[in-house]
């Protein structure tokens, strides 16, 4: 199996004032928290959003592992719907000392390029900043961070920076080259 170099950029906001919100897109776009932990739905979002950009680390997770992760206090999934159809999601994970990581963020391929991504990222970042308000006993958020990589969409880094995220680390590592899995074989054109 061959390897490819993958660049990973880590970005952060250290104050709610850092957030530069995008305008809401035209049409019927709503963002709703998935309040009931659902391994089936979360796996659908993960595979559907990440299938064409080689998200593979969670594809082997069992149902039990998904449930255990999703039931952790403070883990939240916010889903964007376009006219009632899931268009993308942002997943938040609280960490020690008031940090919240945007673990996953993205849109299903059919919804990219329609101004939904900037709006979803803005909304998800705002929910990261106010996460402790929904989870009594959690430390108030002091930092929101994420990472993106050279395998992600072409506009990912620009979207993060336009929302006020600042670069704080860059790494390049060799990773095994994997085929684009898609949510199922043949879902995306080559």
UniProtKB/TrEMBL annotation:
Matching Pfam families: Acetyltransf_1
Domain N-acetyltransferase: 29-190
InterPro entries given in the database record: Acyl_CoA_acyltransferase, GNAT_dom
Protein name in UniProt: GNAT family N-acetyltransferase
Organism encoding this protein: Streptomyces bangladeshensis
């Amino acid at each position: 199996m061959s390897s490819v170099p993958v660049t990973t950029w880590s970005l952060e906001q250290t104050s709610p004032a850092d957030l530069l919100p995008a305008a809401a897109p035209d049409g019927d776009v709503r963002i709703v928290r998935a309040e009931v932990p659902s391994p089936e739905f979360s796996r659908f979002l993960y595979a559907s959003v990440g299938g064409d950009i080689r998200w593979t680390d969670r594809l082997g997770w069992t149902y039990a592992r998904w449930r255990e992760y999703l039931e952790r206090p403070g883990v939240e999934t916010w889903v964007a719907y376009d006219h009632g159809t899931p268009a993308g999601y942002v997943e938040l994970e609280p960490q020690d000392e008031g940090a919240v990581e945007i673990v996953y963020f993205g849109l299903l391929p059919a919804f990219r390029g329609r101004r939904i991504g900037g709006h979803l990222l803005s909304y998800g970042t705002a929910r990261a900043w106010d996460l402790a308000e929904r989870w009594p006993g959690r430390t108030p958020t002091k930092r929101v961070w994420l990472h993106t990589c050279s395998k992600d969409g072409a506009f990912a880094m620009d979207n993060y920076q336009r929302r006020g995220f600042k670069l704080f680390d860059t790494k390049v590592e060799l990773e095994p080259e994997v085929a684009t899995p898609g949510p199922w074989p043949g879902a995306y054109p080559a």
